[in-house]
């Protein structure tokens, strides 16, 4: 395809797949798109192991990595110990999380043991942690590094230029896009409020043309459309509004390669587009998740979510326990089980391979292009 994204990243089809699953990353890259490996929670040692595996299986096709280095989080820029982080979590928030589990007959032993999580989470989100992960990543043939939740740290921009690797940044509003372009990023990922995971409140249909128009007088860099996109026709629509390709995350969660909890995968395949909720209850920043009694409890009667990363230290231990028990058949845990997913989940009705998803995108894109062409006949 004649797309700036294809030229920049040396790929056949401008569809980028964000996934925490290395198998999905490889499958999408080999199918002509580009897999982007979510690396935020990995230690440098584990990241090296995962990227080595991708190198061995991707047959030389391009791939990238995604990190989360937020501009703002509790304790950023300060010398804050893990104990100080733990002491900043009110007991009421811990008790509320335990109460939800208890209501569904789940033991709450061990949920207070979060000291290691505090250390790793803070390190992963820091500029220093990003630098360490980037050093590992740039030892591999990556073609792109993406950052979420703010302008990439200077070290990411500098290392991207040094290694000739494109730096991308996610934005959810026009003003954020302008700041990113001024900072020197190479690609904008304009993510509408329909997206799974962290997202803003402006819809994709509005955000794409708004961002496209806003950056023209500053620097016309490529835009990837994101947020609720699970079909090639949606991708075509976004590109007609100024995008050069699409960035998708949710659509890969129900593929055969995905490591998604089978219980959650079944829920997603049965879900409608209204079965998600945008909430701060998981990370302290707004993120879209599959609705369950866990999310309902926080939305309807829970305490005000804590700022990042404190809220994650409350929610993640409980959600990991729910995830494990649900896969073992625990009925209460199966009800509570949830994960990040966008409103496009209503279009994800069957499980197929990641390669087949890419092929379906290509076919639907071509069909949408033909339909549009007919209007000019």
Molecular structure report:
The chain is of the alpha/beta class. The chain has a domain at 4-76 and 126-250: Alpha-Beta Barrel (TIM Barrel), CATH 3.20.20. The protein has helices at 4-9, 22-30, 44-57, 82-87, 91-103, 115-125, 127-137, 154-163, 174-183, 204-215, 232-240, 262-270, 293-301, 310-327, 331-336, 354-374, and strands spanning 15-19, 34-38, 63-68, 144-148, 166-171, 187-191, 197-198, 223-226, 245-248, 276-279, 287-290. α2 runs parallel beside α3, α5 packs parallel to α14 and α6 (115-125) packs across α7. The longest helix is centred in the last third of the chain and has 21 residues, at 354-374.
Following the backbone from N to C, one meets helices and strands in this order, namely: HEHEHEHHHHEHEHEEHEHEHEEHHHH
Question: Strand sequence of the main sheet, in spatial order?
Answer: 1-2-3-4-5-6-8-9
Let me know the number of strands.
Answer: 11
Supply Rg: 20 Å
Could you state the CATH homologous superfamily of the domain at 4-76 and 126-250?
A: Aldolase class I
Unreliable stretches covering 5 or more consecutive residues: 72-76
Question: How far is the first residue's CA from the last residue's CA?
Answer: 22 Å
What is the average per-residue confidence, as pLDDT, rounded to a whole number?
A: 91
Helix-strand makeup class: alpha/beta
Number of helices: 16
CATH topology-level fold name of the domain at 4-76 and 126-250: TIM Barrel
Which CATH architecture of the domain at 4-76 and 126-250 would you pick?
Alpha-Beta Barrel
Strand fraction band? 5-15%
Shape: globular
The CATH C-level class name of the domain at 4-76 and 126-250:
Alpha Beta
């Amino acid at each position: 395809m004649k797309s700036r994204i294809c030229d920049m990243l040396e790929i056949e089809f401008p569809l980028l797949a964000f996934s925490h699953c290395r198998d999905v990353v490889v499958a999408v890259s080999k199918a002509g798109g580009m897999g982007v490996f979510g690396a935020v929670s990995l230690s440098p040692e584990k990241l090296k192991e995962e990227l080595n595996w991708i190198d061995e299986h991707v047959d030389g096709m391009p791939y990238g990595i995604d990190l989360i280095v937020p501009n703002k989080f509790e304790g950023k820029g300060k010398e804050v110990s893990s104990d100080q982080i733990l002491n900043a979590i009110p007991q009421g928030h811990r008790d509320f999380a335990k109460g939800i589990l208890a209501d569904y007959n789940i033991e709450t032993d061990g949920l207070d043991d979060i000291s290691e999580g505090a250390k790793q989470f803070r390190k992963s989100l820091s500029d220093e942690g990003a630098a360490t992960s980037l050093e590992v990543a740039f030892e591999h043939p990556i073609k792109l590094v993406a950052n979420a939740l703010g302008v990439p740290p200077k070290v990411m921009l500098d290392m991207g230029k040094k290694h000739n690797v494109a730096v991308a940044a996610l934005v959810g509003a026009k003003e954020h896009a302008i700041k990113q372009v001024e900072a020197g990023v190479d690609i904008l990922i304009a993510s509408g409020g329909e997206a799974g995971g962290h997202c803003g409140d402006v819809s994709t249909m509005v955000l794409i043309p708004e961002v496209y128009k806003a950056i023209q007088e500053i620097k016309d860099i490529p835009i990837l459309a994101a947020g609720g996109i699970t079909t090639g026709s949606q991708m075509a629509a976004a590109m007609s509004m100024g995008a050069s390709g699409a960035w998708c995350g949710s659509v890969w969660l129900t593929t055969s390669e995905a490591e998604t909890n089978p219980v959650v995968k079944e829920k997603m395949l049965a879900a409608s587009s209204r079965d998600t909720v945008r909430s701060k209850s998981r990370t302290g920043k707004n993120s879209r998740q599959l609705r369950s009694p866990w999310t309902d409890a926080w939305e309807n009667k829970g305490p005000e979510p804590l700022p990042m990363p404190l809220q994650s230290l409350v929610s993640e231990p409980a959600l990991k326990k729910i995830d494990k028990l649900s896969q073992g058949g625990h009925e209460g845990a199966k009800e509570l089980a949830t994960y990040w997913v966008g409103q496009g989940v209503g279009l994800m009705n069957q499980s197929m391979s990641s390669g087949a998803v890419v092929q379906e995108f290509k076919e639907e894109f071509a069909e949408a292009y033909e339909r549009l062409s007919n209007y000019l006949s």
